[in-house]
Amino acid sequence: MNIDASSLKAREGREFEMWSQFRAALEGKQVRESIVTGWMAIMAEGIPKLETASGEAMIAELKAAARALDAAGKEAPKINISKGTLDWLLERGQHHYRRKDYRPASGIFCVLCALCPTVPHYWHSFGLAEQAVHEWHSATFAHEQAVKLETEQANYWLQLAECYDETHQLKAAKQALDKAEGILKARPDEALASFAARLSDRIGHRP
After folding, report:
1. Residue limits of CATH 1.25.40.10 in the chain
2. For 119-135, how does the pLDDT look when each residue is reduced to its tens digit (9 = 90+)?
């Protein structure tokens, strides 16, 4: 696949933007603790031992990624990590989330956001895990990143609306809800529409 110079520049610009915002968020206690928890959870998981060579390669990738993140400054770190490793991390985060082990789930999703800050699903997953433990400010940040990257996902906007409501940002909550409802008019989804109706009723009764 050929990528022209303008597309490459745009992608690098987005990576820089998302990394800068993530780096700023690390100044906050909750996001900083989440990424530390994530690395601890990853180390505790062990590496899948399907093949010795693949396990060793995954360990090497993760160690190199950790060093790159640790050394990163204002510029987005250059991280080479395989899809297989990213998929394994995502699966482990989802495994913990399904088991309601929300802290390690959140931590692993946070690591994924650091490794690939332009993947909206990683941010959405991080936000959901933070919501589950009522860390509303870091959840809000995560969902804000998700909707910047993918503007046409009603569920992303609904989760963001809930976070805004929980952090007493009523105007922003209504705007996010309006965005979600607009998407649902074009692409109906019964479950999301039900969630939107409940959220609308709750937000509408705020003083």
Report:
1. 9-150
2. 999 999 999 999 999 99
